[in-house]
Amino acid sequence: MRSRSERDFMIFLLGICVGLRISDLLRLKKEDLYKPHITIIEKKTKKTKRFKIPGYIKKYVVPFADQLHDGDFIFKSRQGKNKPICRSTAYKILNDAAKACHLQEIGTHTLRKTFGYHHYKVNHDVAILQELFNHSKPEITLRYIGITQDQIDRSVDKVKLI
């Protein structure tokens, strides 16, 4: 994916590393990539969200941002002066990359779910993930990231307190 397009690689990289909905990811601009924390109003929920771009991906993000003009959308469309690509274009980019890797069809939400799944596997803290995703219940978050009841049951069986 990266050899084809840096922009397309950035969609994937930021998508799996920050956990935003694609509609919010596409609205980011060059200046956002340099900030220690980014504050947005989520398009879907209209709630304020503050997040950071993890330090370990800055080595990819900053050089990419350096190539953009001030005020440019990160995922600038090739159509028009300075407009972001649309959801359907992001979907096509991700599906083309999935096919090149011999993966089943993926969607734009796959990036957010991937972030959530790995965040949970590392931190084992559904409350933080629930807050990150603005979900109303932990059960919604666990279902969203694919943690099934069987996995929960197996994890409970492993804990022996006496």
Task: Describe the protein's architecture and organization.
The chain is mainly alpha-helical. Helix content is 50%, strand content 5%. α1 crosses α5 and α6 packs across α7. The protein is globular. It starts with 5 loop residues before the first helix and ends with a helix.
Oligomer designation? single chain
Poorly predicted parts:
none
Contiguous helical run count: 8
Strand adjacency order, main sheet: 1-2
Distance between the termini: 51 Å
Radius of gyration over C-alpha positions, nearest whole angstrom: 17 Å
Shape, per Cα inertia axes: globular
Helical residues, percent: 40-55%
Number of E strands = 2
Helix and strand run: HHEEHHHHHH
In short:
The protein is mainly alpha-helical. It has helices spanning 6-18, 22-25, 58-66, 87-100, 109-123, 126-133, 138-145, 149-158, and strands spanning 38-41, 48-51. Helices cover 50% and strands 5% of the residues.
Task: List the keywords.
two-stranded antiparallel sheet; 2 strands; 5% strand; 162 residues; mainly alpha; globular
Layout of SSEs?
Layout: H1 6-18, H2 22-25, E1 38-41, E2 48-51, H3 58-66, H4 87-100, H5 109-123, H6 126-133, H7 138-145, H8 149-158
Antiparallel strand pairs: 1-2
Helix pairs in contact: 1-5, 6-7
